[in-house]
Task: structure prediction
Amino acid sequence: MKVFVTGATGVLGRPVVRRLVAAGHTVRGLSRSSENATLLHRLGAEPVDADLFDLVSLQTALRDADAVLHLATKIPPSTRAWRLSAWAENDRIRRDGTHALVTAALASPTVKTFVYPSFALVYPESGDEWIDAENTPAAPTAIEATTLDAEAEVARFAASGDGRRGLALRMGALYSPDAPSAQDQLRIAHLGFVPVPGRPEGYMPLVWVDDAANALVVALDRGDSGIYDIVDDHPLRRAEIAAAIAAAVGRKRLRPLPTWLMDLAGGPGTESLSRSQRVSNSRFKAATGWTPNVRDARAGMPLLVRADAERAQEAAPSDAPERMAARK
Ligand SMILES: NC(=O)c1ccc[n+]([C@@H]2O[C@H](COP(=O)([O-])OP(=O)(O)OC[C@H]3O[C@@H](n4cnc5c(N)ncnc54)[C@H](OP(=O)(O)O)[C@@H]3O)[C@@H](O)[C@H]2O)c1
Result:
């Protein structure tokens, strides 16, 4: 299969590209810089110089593609996330970029599949109830509105018929040793504080990055058009996640961060991050046979901490000469 991937160089994009290449697919990744072109070559993909907001360049990029995986995003770092304006580029990618990409895909006679990783934390406060894409999302906050706009574009692709499939996969919050958000959370935990916002008894959907990547690859040729939830098998309450993080970083327990600080770090997304959302992955499992390898945060947090420590160790020797030079 010839697969065009946006966001191919991101936290989720890199494991997706590795899996696609290993499975024998031809992968073209949208690239906006020579660094990303080099990275894509290294991953075994072909970089394509295209602009997500330029229809002509997208039509050229999709010339004989069979499928599109649209992973581009610009979520601001936690130091800037408190400002609504910091989300403007992300909103533009989700709304205008997804519209342009779907329009280009519809113009191509070869593109039959469009897969988009959406966000699972769109549901209303649901207490202990199991929920999934059959439940109606909450009235969207400013930054959730464009997530739902992007899902509507995927539905527009699917509705065009002609054997086309469009799948929006609502992912839990990704955790990965490569994700800056996970590194921030570990830093907070090492300082002795709980790095997840919201009430301790509320459920928070998570998914390990490799399981999320597998789901996207599986969706290329399995599952009917529609919206599915990609989360781990056993969603945990925030207090249980905090206990899992504490155990993984070798602390008996973590203290809650002041609410005003969590609000600042979460920005306009804090409200949705704080609801109780016990999301089920069973519909996607039944539709495709996908199953996560990391069943919950109790299994995943030790992996995260170990991989983070290994990454820090690998970075240390190459940093050492620079640090020595800086000290002179
Ligand atoms: N992270 C999570 O917790 C989470 C949870 C649920 C769903 N998701 C979804 O998963 C997808 C991937 O997220 P991620 O965590 O892998 O993001 P990421 O690590 O921030 O990667 C973003 C990717 O998008 C590209 N990009 C940024 N601005 C672009 C633009 N204007 N035009 C084209 N490409 C652009 C980046 O490449 P450049 O180097 O060119 O900027 C990079 O390849 C997104 O759709 C996100 O909404 C993420």
Observations:
- The chain has one domain: 2-312.
- The domain at 2-312 is CATH 3.40.50.720 (Rossmann fold).
- Residues 203 and 237 are 4 Å apart (CA to CA).
